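Predicting holo structure, uridine-5'-diphosphate-xylopyranose bound.
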Amino acid sequence: MKVTVFGIGYVGLVQAAVLAEVGHDVLCVDVDEHKVENLKNGNIPIYEPGLTPLVKQNYESGRLQFTTDAKAGVSHGIMQFIAVGTPPDEDGSADLKYVTAVARTIAQYMDDHKVVLDKSTVPVGTADKVRAVMQETLQARGSKLTFDVVSNPEFLKEGAAVADCMRPERIVVGTDNDDVVELLRELYEPFNRNHDRMILMDIRSAELTKYAANCMLATKISFMNEISNLAELLGADIEKVRQGIGSDPRIGYHFIYPGCGYGGSCFPKDVQALIRTAEHIGYQPKLLQAVEDVNYQQKDKLPQFIKRHFGENLAGKTFALWGLSFKPNTDDMREASSRVLMETLWQAGAQVQAFDPEAMDETQRIYGHRADLKLMGTKEAALQGADALVICTEWQNFRAPDFDTIKSALKQPVIFDGRNLYDPERLATRGITYYAIGRGASLATYK
Ligand code: UDX
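Done. Tokens:
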């Protein structure tokens, strides 16, 4: 089937590559000439496990192509995916200018029936806006061409995007026209082999499903972070509590890991956007606001521990930082807890020596060259001469470090761990002062 994907970001590129991999004929369109040229030369703009070979193979086979020519994109596919960004505007609402621009482009150049699929995370009611923009554009052309608008949200996780897209848990399809269902079944047939993963519903329910999923997961995390703060004050260990509640299948083990706050391109933005949507229709969402507030507070947890230990003025202190990306297996720094940490440390006069397996280029791009930030080649190099170690991201190779090396490299044997990677008792016996999240039973955090 011929498919066009507008927007070569995380969602668009992964979806396009996976659709090409199963045999569809996919053309990706982006306004960024540089990005398109790079992709044609096999340079993938993001770090995502498994994506580079998938893109290269499918590009070489001709099933996956890239262009900046929007007109060619519109004439290529019966299926027209909109996978452009929906960044937050000043008040946190999702900004739809890129989505509506693509809708206008499709209507401007189409010369037969098109099925327009919204892949971007968009507020409830966006499909109606897309439809209105397209109708207006077609009318201005004096055209009577028809089209369908479908809500088809994406649920992939960064770091596991290819696998999530190849083996989706569900394919949510919101449509008001039964006639397009057969086309969508054909498109997604390769992903429905073992059992039908398509969940059909009306458009608005599909749009809300995406926000509800992300907000539910963010709620679980903020809930655990709140309980971890209680555990710290009450002298309990959140890791024991986590296991204790996770064993109840109604609660489950997923997404109940406490930490130094959630980040990324989705949770912070989507929680805020749903709050704004609710407010626009006169509903004050108390729970969602609390989820957001707890997360904001949680990102300040490590800086608080550091100031509790070293005092408010950190001038002359150097901190080794392990982990910059908002989570492992990505170079994405959007809303990363490490950013709040570094910015607070710098403000208090401290220096940072950071290491991350993938996100150092991105960190350099964001912060440029500055005297109080050194990006080090290895996690061991980051430790040298630092006053303490801080951990913001749970990359696998941070899980079992050589604690003797850490002790001898640091001026003081102190670890501030935002991801609860280590056993507090084991560290205590090695003479390391250990601050972690919600581990009130350990000495460092419960005094
Ligand atoms: C998320 C959703 O999981 C995905 O379904 C959706 O399509 C996009 O948003 P992503 O942002 O890639 O995916 O990352 P995810 O793995 O969900 O982690 C988000 C944040 O939550 C990270 O900062 C992570 O560290 C944090 N997190 C996650 C916790 O603090 N505790 C947990 O138990 C799980």
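The longest strand covers residues 2-6.
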